[in-house]
Amino acid sequence: MPVKKVDRRTVIKESLTVFRQKGYHNATMSDIAVACGLLKGSIYHYFSSKEELMKAVIQYLHEWYKREVFALAYDTGKSGAQKLEELAAISEQIFYQEPGGCLMANIGMETANTYPEFAELIKGFFEEWIAALAFIFEEFFDSQKARSIAELSVGEIEGAVMLMQVYQDKGYLKRAHQHIKQRFIAAEAAATEKA
Does 180 fall in a domain? Predict the structure, then answer.
């Protein structure tokens, strides 16, 4: 097997794919080394353990979502409905193309009782997601109600992703996004009626 030189970021990105396909417990450092084109022992030059690598993957993915996805919610040049439409489009693009569903939810469920340090990092990801959706819904609801709707929305999306995987039917995710957008449209219509 040819051995190549890779950087830490490449190891993280390749690991993300392996963890998405195999889960945390079933993925080995050998699997990750092979995905990176490295000898097994070489992977330890980048990360001292699988736990350290998983934390780096979670942080990397969280930062990517924060920058590329959640930031869309704070775009002042777009309406709430437009923001929800964009968030739905990127969500569908990600979950339709990536096998295995949501890595954060999968790793969270798989490791909740064995690696509490992962749970804390994963909570940070979900808090960012909830906050982004709550910001959109705060246009028509007080902050407590907006957060409640955002939490429900994230739960709907995660449930839809799981059902989409089980039934091999992308319609679950599309319907969840439509339901969330309908909630916003109904609130917008009620606010217009009052005005």
Answer: yes
